Amino acid sequence: MRHLQPTAIIFAAVLALTGCPRPRSAELVSIAITPENARIERGGSTDFVATGIYADGSVKEITNEVVWQVVDGFVATIDADVPGRVHALNTGTTRVRAVSGEISRALAFTVVGGAVVRLEISPSAPIVPVGLSMQLTVNAVRADDSVEDVTRTAIYSSMGNASAIAMRDETPGVIIGATPGQSDLLVSFDGVSAHAIITVTDATIRQLTVAPSNPSVPV
Hints:
Strand 14 and strand 15 (147-149) form a beta hairpin. The radius of gyration is 32 Å and the shape is elongated. The strands form 6 sheets. A 4-stranded mixed beta sheet has the order 2-10-9-6, with no helix packed on it. The protein has one helix at residues 6-18; strands spanning 28-34, 38-41, 45-47, 49-54, 59-61, 67-70, 76-78, 85-88, 92-100, 103-112, 116-122, 127-129, 133-135, 137-142, 147-149, 155-159, 165-167, 174-177, 181-189, 192-201. Helices cover 6% and strands 48% of the residues. It is mainly beta.
């Protein structure tokens, strides 16, 4: 019969009393909130989701585990029964915050005044010479008559003689005269559209510059 050494007997006894060591749960290091740039119609609601990022690189949804707060209670409030649900009360911008112990995260959102009823493009009938550019402004008028500048977030597309103008994604609302003629510009935002007829004219000389300004010629 094989006999165990005294050290092996002691180690086996310790394991029997304490059990095998268990891995420690990873520490929460940060919180992410989605959706970003949320826009909620007044009287409506949106469900925010909290995701925990842990020290070991793992992630887990913790919407039901954090404490939810709204910075400005005049603009919005947290639902008492559904974690992460925000009810919009009045127009404005505020932040929703998710808190777990000493770790927190805040995210801005905007409450808007009801659905968009129309878009207004300014100038309404733009004229731009070939080779020059013009900045358009697009305003969204909502059901409560509030007005919001949506120039940077609207969607632009040219119809008809599309070659008359050029547009760049990095400069929303800027049109560039490409060839003489007219083009129908379609602007869309939040399910509402508006049109503007853009006229591109031939380039004209606006100014002549003579250099040097005071020339002298020897006799």
